[in-house]
Amino acid sequence: MKMIKVHGSGNDFFILDEKQVDKNLSEEELKELARRVCDRKTGLHGGSDGILYVTSGHDDSVVGKMRVINADGSEASMCGNGIRTVARYLSEQNNLTDFKIETMYADLEVKKAKDFAPKVTAFDAEISPVSFAASDLKMHIGGKEKLFNEVVPELSKTLKFSAVAVPNPHLITFVNHDELMGPELGRIATYLNNGKNPIFPDGVNVSFVEILADNNIFVRTFERGVGFTNACGTAMSASSLIYSLLYASHTDLEDLITVRNPGGMVNTKVHQREDGSYWMSLIGNATFVAKVELSQERALIGDFTDAKWVATTEQAAYENFVGSL
Ligand SMILES: N[C@@H](CCC[C@H](N)C(=O)O)C(=O)O
Q1: Is omega for the bond preceding 167 within 30 degrees of 0, making it cis?
Q2: End-to-end Cα, the chain, rounded Å
Q3: Residue 315 CA: distances (Å) to CA of 93, 310, 311
Q4: What stretch or stretches form a coiled coil here (predicted)?
Q5: Distance between CA 125 and CA 112 in Å, rounded?
Q6: Domains of the chain, each with CATH number or no CATH
Q7: CB of 79 closer than 6 A to ligand 1?
Q8: Does the beta carbon of 237 lie inside 6 Å of ligand 1?
Q9: Strand 75-76 versus strand 98-102 pairing type
Q10: How close is the Cα of 315 to the center of ligand 1, in Å?
Q11: Three-state secondary structure call for residue 10
Q12: Under DSSP, is residue 314 helix (H, G, I), strand (E, B) or coil?
């Protein structure tokens, strides 16, 4: 089988196109493959945050479909950093620059953006649909229908949280720099992703956000199904939305927002449709790190000894770009 190691802001994945497998994968094998390949200690070349499984779409209105399998084998409805890399993959395969990709809940518009730097290819992805409803978030807080800038005493006595599905679930709080770097994010997110808590029994992506300046924020995320990540695209989009609602006197809809993260940076824009609903543009790198060819049978038992890894020169270019920020 053949895969491509990719990342967006250091949030790394293996793209697996269903056309590149040795033998069709069952649902259980796909999840097992993700658990084996992504493991940071025993996985393929240092593992990854997930697998992006590319298949054909429901009809010709989309160029393909992306499924997101987290490192623990769970499936997510969307991945903002991942969809940019899948957009690049499908763009190069089909010689297109502006098209739609099917995801679990929506067909999303993607387009090529201006390179961030030489050899740092960028794509712009629609992040949508957005919902604040507790039912869409699978959130249970004393019968509340939504959570917007409120203390949740079970989580923290002081931090105020907002929850939004984009459409994967996110819990966001604005913090100072010490809180951003401190232990609370890990403590709260580990609890909320333990599979036993009554608030988010299915887990949630948790982000701490520091405001650096107007339209300039830093987002640190603990992802459901993964743990701490260099960056989470849907989290940065959701954080930009909450920023624009909470700090409306410092930003306007459609403003370009710079979002820094531990793995680099992206730009976002928050838009509102005539019916009042929100959507975001997420613009960032879509880096191809390496092409890899390996035995599918061996990968499924965690044996990567025969893997042929051919690195591109893009990672060095990306590191230069991050160094220049
Ligand atoms: N890294 C992704 C989000 C991946 C899914 C997430 N872990 C979930 O379970 O919702 C992104 O860039 O958005």
Answers
A1: yes
A2: 37
A3: 21, 12, 9
A4: none
A5: 9
A6: 2-126+286-323 (3.10.310.10), 134-285 (3.10.310.10)
A7: yes
A8: no
A9: unpaired
A10: 22
A11: coil
A12: helix
Residues tagged active-site: 79, 232
CB 205 within 8 A of CB 222: yes
* C-alpha radius of gyration, the chain, whole number: 19
DSSP 125-171: EEE---B--HHHHT--STT-S---SEE-TTT-SS-EEEEEESSSEEE
Q: E strands, the chain, where? A: 2-8, 11-17, 50-55, 64-70, 75-76, 98-102, 107-117, 120-127, 150-151, 160-165, 169-174, 205-213, 216-223, 227-229, 257-261, 264-272, 278-285, 287-293, 308-311
Please state, in angstroms and rounded to a whole number, the distance separating the CA atoms of residues 169 and 258. Answer: 22
Q: Distance (Å, rounded) from C-alpha 34 to C-alpha 49?
A: 9
Pairing of strands 205-213, 169-174: parallel
Average pLDDT for consecutive 10-residue bins of the chain (325 residues)?
A: 98 98 97 98 98 98 98 98 98 98 98 98 98 98 97 98 98 98 98 98 98 98 97 98 98 98 98 98 98 98 98 98 96
71: closest CA among 12, 137, 127, 22? 12
Residue whose pair of structure tokens reads 């405001």 in the numeric block: 211
Tokens of 132: 């604040």
What's the pTM? Answer: 0.97
Asked whether 261 lines ligand 1 (CB < 6 A), one says: no
- Token pair belonging to 29: 């094998």
| Cα 77 off chain centre by | 10
* ipTM value greater than 0.90: yes
